[in-house]
Amino acid sequence: MKDETPFLRLRSVSKRFGGVQALKDIDWEVRPGEVHCLVGENGCGKSTLIKTVAGVHPPTTGDIEIEGRSVLPLDPAKAKALGIQVIFQDLSLFPNLTVAENIAIEDSLGPALKPISRRHMRDVARKVLKRLDFEIDLDALVADLPVAERQITAIARGLAAEARLIFMDEPTASLTRAEVDRLLAIVARLQADGIAVVFVSHRLDEVVEIAERVTVVRDGSKVGTWPVAEVDQRRIANLMTGLDIETGVVARDMSGAEPLLEVDRLSRRGEFADVSFTLRKGEVLGIVGLLGSGRTELALTLFGMNRSEGGQIRLEGRELDLRSNRDAVNAGIAYVSEDRLSLGVVLPQSIEDNIVLAVMKRLTTGFGLIPTARRKELAAEWVRRLAVKIPGLDRPVQTLSGGNQQRVVLAKWLATHPKVLILDSPTVGVDIKNKQGIYEVVAELAREGVGVILISDEVMEAFATCDRVLQMRAGRIVGEVVPGTISEHEMEERIYA
Amino acid sequence: MADLSDREGAGLLRFFRGLPGGHLGLLALLAALLLLFAVLVPGFLSQGTLNSFMYQLPLLGLLSLAMVVPLLTGGLNLAIIATMNQCALLMVWIMRTFIAPDASSAAVIGVIAIALVAGLLLCIAIGVVTGALVAYTGVHPILVTLGTKSLIDGISIYLTRGMALSGVPEPLSATLNASVLGVPLIFLLLVGAAIALGIVLKHTPFGIACAMIGSNIEATRYSAIDTRRVLVGVYTLSSVTCFLAALVILGTFNSASADYAQSYLLVTILAAVLGGVDPFGGFGTVSGLMIALAILQVISSGLNQFGLSTYLTVAIWGGTLIAVVVAQTLWAVLAPRWRRK
Amino acid sequence: MPERASSAFARWRRRPELWLLLVILIVGTIFSVTARGFLTLPNIIDLLETYSVQAIIAMGLFVVLVSGGIDISFAATASVAQYCAALLAARAGLPAPVVIVAGLTVGAALGCLNAALIHYLRITSIIATISMMSITFSLLMYFSGGRSIYDLPDWWTTRVTFYRTELESGDIVRITLPIVVMAAVALITWVLMTRASVGRQIYAMGGNPEAARRVGAKIGLLTFFAYGYLGVLAALGGMLQAHRVGESVPNAMVNTELAVLSAAVLGGASLNGGAGTVPGVLLGIVLLAILQNGLNLLGVSSYFFQIVIGITILVSTSITVISSRRGRRHRILGEEPANG
After folding, report:
1. Measured between CB atoms, does C133 come within 8 Å of chain B?
2. Counted domains in chain C
3. How far apart are alpha carbons B7 and A284 in whole angstroms?
4. Rounded to 5 degrees, what are φ and ψ at A333?
């Protein structure tokens, strides 16, 4: 086995985007028919690495070899012809096409006048879904599917084509344990057929059973590759973050504090039902659940983006009737979206305008004008207080790193002086140092008496920062846990059950 | 060309347009054109050229301002000229119908005032309806304003049978054609509107919200901005600027018609994009637009004095835009490379 | 499987074609009762011929819209191609096949120029095509001096009739060249867009351009195909228009842009790309045609027609967008709660 040529080999591959070095001198190989795990924190460069191999981004320097031969320059069509299939993290589906057309997209490619057979597309799609043991309406538009079914459609598309190497970028983010198990069974069969599979994940446990080797990426560089047997969860976590994180539990008993936000049997048809909890002053309350568990929908209703259809929200004893998020902000509720890039910041616009966006009315003088000085002053103050690293207040937010972008979002909301701050997966795509910084800001806010709701799918994060953790599944609160009373592992088991 | 089609190119392009001082290239182009025509056309740099410049610019200028506000939010208002013409028609109709031949000057001025108020109200109404359609139905502004354009033009043509209405009373036409210290009033109207709009767009919550909406309407909505109200305001402001353009029409043509200035519709978009307004929305300045308008007008005056047809002028306007965009794209791709070396 | 059936029904209900057909039936019924001579074969055939040029160009515009772009310059392209061909035929006296190929080539070239501006220079399609329209049309007017060409050769202007019959009423019904070309173009476009690889790729690109690139579709080629196809069809429409009126007038096609765009959009093509069908676009044309014709027969001023178009666009697009927005809530709750 030692002298076997690797199927894929990267030689000191680097990739720059403008001023950002996304990949640094990556040397990496994948053997034929192996199951390989590529792990790293969100935003560490692992998705960029895959896109480079898939021909989506050409590498700035370095070489990519397939079976010992250099294949650069690479484009997506050539990568696929060489047997590389990718299931992208954002799924890359076509919302206006049907499930069958998406899965059998290969049928649509090729010479312009190649005839298309709908029956053949449906056959292909049906066969793949059968292999996966899933049933989805083949004629449904992808735009109409729930998240989990979209994910399965994307996986099915990856499996439909002839492949020698399949990348799966976070394929299980919205799947239940049973669905993940079915996927793993398929992977085992693929491996038996000599097809290599690379799992990309920011978690390891789910694939550790069937993987042979694991590669850790941190800040755009490869940390190393190890046989799975030689590393355990803890060591992987340390390698991923570069820190020896002691997951100390900070949970405090806040039951004596004044109730701040009381949610009583809150419901919204099709999204969540009978959600009740109380957030106290200075408390950090975690809500954990899978993608698509209703956690974000709940947050959006608390933030006034969607009307509730039953139940009550009371803030400091006063019942709230939230018609829009302006009502929520005026009442003292702020929301940091999980989708920072498209809902959190306005990327091409300046840092100062992003920070003052939610409080512009407060800055106006007579005639409704905002003096430039006031704008700059307020933005500069928050940049200083949150230690945001910026090249200049008038530069676009997109020039900042993920962590600093997230601090800009926090600055925007803290400028509104919220009583309740809802953080929806606030550390996605944020490097470890900024992550710690954001946790510190959360702790500081809690000390000042702000109630914080932290929504997350990372149990470790929730356990390390929250006083209490609610578990959400299929639109309902199904449990409440005080961190430390059960282990992280037990909690993960409950969530993915 | 592979590098140009890389996605970074587009981002950088937008980024560069947002930079202050991005007008330097345009100013240089303006200076070069002035120099070119001064050399080629004898007597180009004369009082006469300046006068015709100041009389011809306001109409296109005000219409371009009316186009820039929606463009900044990533939209478009194809109904500006229809709005302007209908407003002018309404005002002329009121003045023609209610001013008796032997009316006293006080009565004449009274009717003129009523006509102006009615015209303004009409524009506001059109703007509010257009804005509400854009904001609340979520239909693309191109389609909404295509519909309103068709509707407004249709009503104007139906009611006038396609004829021009003349009869602007003397006091109004004299005022609109007056000059202050040698500067035509309508030019001052353009300057005033440009300054006011410039301040609104740069220094009010409304203006900042416009740019934010143009870049990312959802993120703006999530930041507790009432994006729907802002959009209604945008199209209302655009329509009200059409009211000013209608005044220029009355002054210049002494009449109103449903098909005046129709050919300016697409030119206003060219002028805006030439002036650095991002057609995707989010970026653009009134000062850039004004320089672009000056460039277009200089080209037009110069070719005109050179004795070339107006058709060639329009062709060269289009060519100028493409050339400027090409230059910007190449600059955005090449400049970072030179800097790295 | 009642659920399957109801979801299929829901899908149908969201199709704009269905609504359009319904509206056409209602409007058609009203006109056939109120307007004498509306529901007669000669009138319908006449309508078909009148709208054939618009329908042909609309097919090309539909492809561009599906790809996620827009083109405002097709009327200018049609005029330029028509005039160039007319010059070659009348002044140079070239034979028919050469003239036709030359005309179509001019159209394709102008379309590809649009595609180059959009793909390589990343100019938004609306800006690129507005600029191209200004340039090409103004140059045409400049060089032609606005003069029409009346002495087109006979092969061009002679009416070609494929089928001719005399009705009992004494009216003569002719299936002429424009109608046949329109039918052929519609069929070819339909086959390309639904049965050939290139069509599926254009739909995919309109739905999610980045994903299309990632699965290996050649975005550049698709862009060139879409705009080039529209260019060819615009040229074809332009030459047919000269065939119908027997002369080449440089500005004859001006101001048809918005009517063609309206028809395509009425038929369900979206400015966001990825949506629309050939039958839908044809129905859009049919609706505009019968509205104009019916109102005409009713003696309503033709000035009124533009108002009707405006209202039709506003109402139909609003309904389409609003109805497709409904029911987009993703179900998360496993079971529907017993009481809402």
Report:
1. yes
2. 1
3. 41
4. -115, 130
pLDDT over threshold 90, residue A204: no
Own/partner contacts of B204-210, CB < 8 Å, gap of 24 or more, are: B204/A364, B204/A368, B204/A369, B204/A370, B205/A360, B205/A361, B205/A363, B205/A364, B205/A368, B205/A370, B206/A368, B206/B230, B206/B233, B208/A353, B208/A356, B208/A357, B208/A360, B208/A370, B209/A357, B209/A360, B210/B69, B210/B72, B210/B73, B210/B234
Domains along the sequence of chain A with CATH: 8-241 (3.40.50.300), 259-496 (3.40.50.300)
Q: What is the pLDDT of residues B3-28, one digit of tens each?
A: 333 333 344 444 444 444 467 888 88
In a domain, C65, yes or no: yes
Which positions in chain C touch A113 (Cβ < 8 Å)?
196-198
Which residue of B10, B137, B318 is in closest CB contact with C321? B137
Interchain contact, A326 vs B226, CB within 8 Å: yes
A267: enclosing H helix or E strand:
strand A259-268
Q: What is the mean pLDDT of residues A391-415?
A: 89
Measured CA to CA, the distance from residue A94 to residue A91 in angstroms comes to 9
Bridge partners (DSSP) listed for residue A275: A266
CB contact under 8 A, B10 and C122: yes
Q: How many CA atoms lie within 13 A of B154 on its CB side?
A: 17
- The yes-or-no verdict on residue A495 having pLDDT over 90 is no
| Pairwise CB contact (< 8 Å): B8 & A18 | yes
Mention every residue, 6+ apart, whose C-beta is less than 8 A from residue B320.
B274, B295, B296, B299
Q: Which amino acid is at A33?
A: G
Binned at pLDDT 50, 70 and 90, residue A111 comes out as confident
What is the ipTM score, two decimals? 0.84
User: Residue B265 sits in a domain of what CATH number?
Assistant: 1.10.3470
Give the residue from C66, C215, C271 with the most A CB atoms within 10 Å of its CB, the best one to mutate.
C215
CA C334 – CA A272 distance, rounded (Å): 10
Residue B100 inside a domain? The answer is yes
Q: Could you report the per-residue pLDDT of A235-244, keeping only the tens digit for each? A: 887 888 776 6
Residue C340 has pLDDT above 50, yes or no: no
Which among C210, C225, C332 has CB closest to A297? C332
Domain that residue C65 falls in: 16-24+34-321
Count other Cβ atoms within 10 Å, centred on residue A118.
15
Average pLDDT of the residues in B128-154:
90
- Summarised one tens digit per residue, pLDDT across range B166-211 is 989 989 999 999 988 889 999 999 999 999 999 999 999 999 999 9
| Assigned domain for B94 exists | yes
- Among candidates A441, A436, A432, A433, which has minimal Cα distance to A408? A441
Rounded CA separation B154/B161 (Å)? 10
Residue-number span of the structural domain to which B57 is assigned? 11-331
C194: domain CATH number is: 1.10.3470
Of C11 and B176, the structure prediction assigns the larger pLDDT to B176
Looking at the structure of chain B, the number of domains it has is 1
How far away is chain B from the Cα of C24, in angstroms, using its nearest Cα?
A: 19
For residue C68, give the chain A residue with the closest CA.
A96
Average pLDDT over residues C46-58: 92
Cβ neighbours of A267 in C, within 8 Å: 337
Q: Which residues of A touch C201 (CB under 8 A)?
A: 108-109
pLDDT at position A19 is 63
- Asked if C216 lies within 8 A of A75 by C-beta distance, the reply is yes
**Tell me, what DSSP letter sits at residue A483?**
B
Given CB atoms, is B113 within the 8 Å cutoff of chain C? no
C295 contacts on B by Cβ (under 8 Å): none
Q: Which residues does chain C have within 8 Å of residue B322's beta carbon, measured at their own beta carbons?
A: 117, 121, 123, 128, 131, 135
User: What is the model's pLDDT at position B15?
Assistant: 41
Three-state secondary structure readout of C321-339: HHHHHCCCCCCCCCCCCCC
